[in-house]
Design a protein that fits this description.
By secondary structure, this protein is mostly beta strands. Helix content is 3%, strand content 42%. The protein is built from 2 helices and 29 strands.
Length: 479
């Protein structure tokens, strides 16, 4: 996330636009990798909250998740016992279990790929792959709930997801919440942020900040269900990921029976995922109330619940999303393990494919708000195999610059993540460096996902000061 230069204009809302005509906003639809459905024969990962990453030492993929063991491993007085495990892959899609017994000595080992002891372990949320830290031994952070003398929310760290150590004086939460949490680094705030339910049973999402994992800000509600959601719906969790200039949230919507009686809101019901987003990493909203990862067909993994919890950008520029999913409804596994059978799922999405514009029929167009250009870089993520896209550059008042009009633009037909507009006899937009412009895009029979460039959006007041007094404008960012 570059907060001082390059921008990526995504279309979650119309914040970056001045005008929009005949364009419909749609939510992207990640595609299930059928060869990426992983069933663990030793445990049930219905709410496994997987975290996938590439081990920098080996170059192999590793996935961390938790699962429910069969009853023989359940401690007395508990209805279930979770265990933390790791699996590996050459491609991040096809996972296999490896025997870690020699690598990780655990006295109460229940399965060969176990990475933390059973004693005192309740569960963990999605692990946090911390690319910000300068300490490689703390690259991966696990938000673990332990019972007993180790306390409620100890912070475990690891360089590789296999070798873990407890940071004795650190923690991930001082307030006592459900462990379905998410952590991320916020470069705008200069702090780590936790997104979690504020208390057990309180199904809203709050955020709180820390810079040292010892002192924390007071939680602030970031997002909650409202009157536009299905009756009695609640938020189950929201993993958050910094992405380009924004923060993307995978909002787990818990759809329960509107007849709230026993078992009420805590046993049955389905969980699916909607998209949320934030410009500052603290205040989140939703563009459309459509499912981003909907429930699957009956009998398939995800028909009951799906919990996307990890996101990776692959080398071939795809967004890969990892989820735990169940065939049965929420908590059915307690009474009928066969109905709650779960798996780890892998979905793939086009780069920037969270939300896009598409003409309803015929050509559509939009104009951006004021942009301050400080380099010649300009690309569009477009998909127009049977249509075309053109770009023109205008002055702040909307007058097209000569030689940079729609008529001068060489139309593009095809599919390109980084299409660079060209105009007749002009190979770049270098003549607009350190100037204020607007971009206009005309699209026919296709989709646009984003605009990238070395520019940033500015306010009209900053433009007037720049024009009249030569004061350089500042980018619009929410503190």
């Amino acid at each position: 996330m570059d907060t001082h230069g390059s921008s990526t204009l995504l279309f979650f809302d119309d914040w970056y636009l001045q005008r929009r005509e005949n364009l419909v906003r749609h939510v992207g639809r990640p595609q299930l990798a059928t060869d990426g459905i992983f069933i663990d024969p030793h445990l049930d990962p219905s709410w496994g909250y997987p975290t996938a990453f590439v081990d920098t030492n080996t170059g192999r993929w590793r996935c961390l998740y938790q699962g429910q063991l069969d009853p023989q491993h359940t401690r007395p007085g508990r209805r279930m016992q979770h265990v933390a495990v790791a699996v590996e892959s050459d491609d991040g899609v096809r996972w296999k279990i490896e025997d870690l017994s020699d690598k990780i000595p655990i006295s109460d080992r229940a399965c060969s790929h176990q990475v933390l002891p059973l004693e005192g372990f309740d569960e963990w949320g999605p692990c946090f792959f911390d690319a910000h830290t300068d300490n490689p031994t703390e690259r991966i952070k696990a938000f673990v709930s332990f019972s007993g003398a180790q306390g409620h929310s100890p912070l475990y760290v690891s360089p590789d997801g296999l070798s873990w150590k407890l940071i004795e004086d650190a923690r991930w939460h001082p307030f006592g919440i459900d462990p379905a949490v998410s952590g991320f680094w916020n470069p705008i705030r200069g702090s780590y942020v936790i997104a979690a339910r504020p208390k057990g049973g309180d199904r809203r999402i709050s955020v709180y900040e820390t810079k040292d994992w010892r002192t924390f800000s007071h939680p602030q509600v970031a997002i909650r269900t409202d009157a536009q959601d299905t009756p009695a719906a609640e938020v189950y969790g929201m993993p958050v990921f910094p992405y380009e200039n924004i923060f993307v949230g995978f909002l787990w919507i818990y759809q329960v029976s509107p007849i709230v009686d026993s078992p009420g809101k805590y046993i049955h019901g389905k969980v699916q995922c909607q998209l949320s987003y934030s410009y500052n990493g603290l205040h989140f909203q939703r563009a459309l109330r459509e499912p981003f990862l909907p429930n699957a067909e009956p009998g398939e993994f995800g028909y009951g619940c799906i919990y996307p919890s990890s996101m990776v950008i692959t080398d071939d520029k795809k967004i890969r999303i990892y989820s735990s999913a169940s065939k049965g409804e929420h908590a059915q596994i307690h009474a009928r393990p066969d109905l709650g059978e779960g798996a780890i799922l892998t979905h793939e999405l086009r780069l920037d494919g969270f939300s896009y514009f598409e003409p309803q029929g015929g050509p559509g167009s939009f104009t951006t708000r004021l942009l301050f250009v400080h380099d010649e870089k300009l690309t569009l993520n477009v998909q127009v195999p049977q249509g075309e896209v053109r770009v023109q550059i205008t002055d702040p008042d909307g007058n097209p610059h000569p030689r940079y009009t729609f008529a001068d633009c060489i139309p593009f037909t095809g599919d390109d993540l980084f299409w660079e507009p060209k105009w007749k006899n002009h190979l770049s937009v270098s003549e607009f460096m350190e100037k204020v412009v607007r971009l206009e895009v005309k699209l026919f029979n296709g989709r646009i996902y984003s605009i990238r460039g070395n520019f940033f959006p500015i306010r009209s007041g900053d433009y007037r000061r720049f024009k009249d007094q030569g004061v350089p404008p500042n980018p619009i960012y929410e503190e």
